[in-house]
Every structure is written in C-alpha cells, then in structure tokens.
Structure to design on (336 residues):
C-alpha cells in the first residue's frame, strides 16, 4: 500500500543551534514542508536581530530541501506594540513559557497577572499574531496541565480575537477545553499519541521518552487519539521533537525531550493505518495547520509505503530518536 501526503507541517519543533542544528535541521527539511520553530535558545529569541539571524542559520543548516522555518518569538511582557508591529512579518507566533517549567524557559512568565500581560496580548490580538502556550503550572507533575486549563480559559475569554494554541496537549481535560472556546487550538505530539506514563516509568526507566509535559494516563492518550484520528479541525501535528545529546538523556538528571522529527511521518502513517484512519492523516499533518495559521508552505509531496523501516539507533553519534533500533511498518519512499 502507498499513500502520499502533501506539504507536511510540524507546528512545534525544537531545532536548537550550532552542531545540533546542523544535525537535526536537514532531517526535518527532508520530509516536512515547513515547521514552527521554537525560540527557547540560550539566550531566548527576543529581538528582531536574533530572530532574523536564527532564521538564516536554520535555512543554512536545512540545506537544499525546500523548507519554510516559521519563526517564533519568546514571549516577554515588556514587548511594545511598536516592536511587535516591526517583527510581525518575520514571525508566525509568539511562544509563552511559564518561568522555569521546561528546557531554557527561565526567562518566562511568573504568575499569570492579566493586567501585566494585557498590553502585549492586546497588541498581538490587534496585529493578528497567534499566541502559543506551554500550558503547565508548577504543581504536581501529573496535574500541571489540568491545573493550567483555567488559565487557558481566562486567556481565551479575555482575548476573544487572539488565536491561542495549547501546545503539546496531553490530557482529556485539554481536549475538552478546546471545544469550549472558538479561539483555542492545540498541537499534539507523536509521542503523546503513542505512550503513557507506563511506557516511561512503568518498567525500566526510559530516558528517551522523558519529556515535558510528561505522558499521562491511558484515558488521556485515548482522548488525544480521538481528536487526531477524527481529523478534528482544531488540532494539528506539532512534534515537539526536542533533541538532546545522548549523554544529557542517559544521565542522572535526564533532560526532557523526545527526538521524533526524522521518524514522525512513518510512525504517524503506522498509527493512523492501524486505526483505519489514514484518510485523516492529511488534515492532521498539514491541512488543519494551513487553515489555523493561514499559511501556504512550499509544495512537497511525500510518498510513504507500507513496508518495514528500521529506525537508526542514533544520528551522527549524537542524538537518539524515538523507536531507535526498532522496526516501523511504514517507510518514506520519496519526498520532493
Ligand atoms: O520535553 C520537552 N523538551 N518539553 C518542552 O516543552 C521543551 C523541550 C526542549 O526544549 O527540550
Ligand atoms: Zn516544545
């Protein structure tokens, strides 16, 4: 069996910088038409200069494949409307991190005082710049996303013209919140469609599956699957592929992040096929994102066939992917 996907999009991607960027960018650019590039570098991307030069480095690292890096700015409550106006054509969204909640998020927002956030959010709303949010509180790790839902609701209610993307949702609660507000959307990762906390810590600890937000309960995974497989128009694929060097993952104090970008389309084809939902894959990996963000990425047709694909153990002796050394049921035959 053969399928083809047009213009696959990864609407939440960590490309890093320097050596890691050089390793991972070509892997995304090979099979994806474009990706929303996260700004949690050290230091975070908060100026026009940093944004433009990071975009140049991404394009250079991506090589010759046609690939559009959709850039984001790291949310700061002191951005002025003039500054946002000056960068609006260079970015697709602004990404908000609660302070210290995940990798390189120390400069994020503390407390969610609407009065403090309102000037920037109103300006974004007026300029039509979407807000992407890492929605976790600092509470008990399994409850962090659920505890953040009231904050999403407050944001959605107070800024009805602002498009708000709940990033990498992991819970049934988040899927339900999506239905209550017209201006709420969500990305879903590959790993949260495949795993629960049991896969991470139910047997021997699996550092390569450790991420933020942590994978949750079976009923949460089912709710995410329902949304993705039914081509729910408010959800889109965002891998949250987050590469870390092998020694940072296989270590006491394991870094959070699952590296999925190079195997994402193959694994999604397998998942959707196994659920008899291949006809929903195009919407989930491209069409929904195009209409939510109003984008027109470079044309790319990716042909996949149902035949075994052995996932590499490691890329460039540095970064270990999800399903390393395992066989997937679908392979990419061509992309271009
Ligand atoms: O597991 C994660 N890793 N979650 C995030 O939100 C950030 C990411 C990273 O940048 O490593
Ligand atoms: Zn992320």
């Amino acid at each position: 069996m053969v399928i083809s996907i047009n213009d696959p999009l990864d609407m939440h991607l960590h490309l890093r910088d320097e050596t890691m960027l050089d390793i991972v960018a070509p892997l995304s650019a090979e099979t994806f038409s474009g990706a929303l590039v996260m700004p949690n570098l050290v230091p975070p991307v908060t100026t026009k200069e940093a944004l433009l030069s990071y975009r140049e480095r991404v394009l250079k690292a991506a090589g010759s494949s046609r690939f559009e890096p959709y850039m984001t700015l790291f949310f700061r409550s002191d951005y002025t409307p003039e500054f946002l106006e000056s960068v609006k054509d260079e970015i697709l969204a602004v990404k908000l991190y609660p302070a210290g909640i995940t990798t390189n998020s120390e400069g994020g927002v503390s407390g969610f005082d609407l009065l403090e956030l309102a000037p920037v959010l109103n300006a974004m709303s007026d300029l039509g710049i979407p807000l992407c949010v890492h929605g976790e509180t600092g509470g008990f790790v399994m409850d962090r996303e659920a505890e953040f839902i009231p904050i999403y609701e407050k944001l959605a209610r107070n800024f009805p013209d602002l498009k708000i993307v709940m990033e990498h949702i992991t819970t049934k609660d988040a899927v339900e919140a999506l239905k209550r507000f017209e201006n709420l959307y969500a990305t879903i990762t590959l790993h949260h469609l495949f795993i629960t906390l049991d896969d991470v810590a139910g047997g021997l600890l699996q550092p390569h599956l450790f991420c933020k937000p942590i994978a949750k309960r079976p009923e949460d995974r089912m709710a995410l699957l329902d949304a993705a497989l039914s081509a729910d128009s408010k959800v889109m694929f965002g891998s949250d592929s987050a590469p870390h060097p092998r020694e940072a993952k296989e270590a006491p104090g394991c870094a959070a992040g699952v590296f999925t970008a190079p195997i994402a389309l193959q694994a999604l084809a397998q998942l959707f096929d196994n659920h008899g939902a291949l006809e929903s894959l195009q919407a989930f990996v491209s069409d929904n994102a195009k209409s939510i963000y109003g984008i027109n990425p470079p044309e790319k047709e990716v042909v996949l066939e149902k035949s075994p694909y052995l996932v590499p153990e490691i890329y460039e002796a540095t970064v270990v992917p999800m399903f390393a050394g395992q066989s997937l049921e679908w392979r990419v035959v061509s992309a271009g």
The chain has twelve helices and 13 strands. The domain at 2-335 is CATH 3.20.20.140 (TIM Barrel). The mean pLDDT is 97.
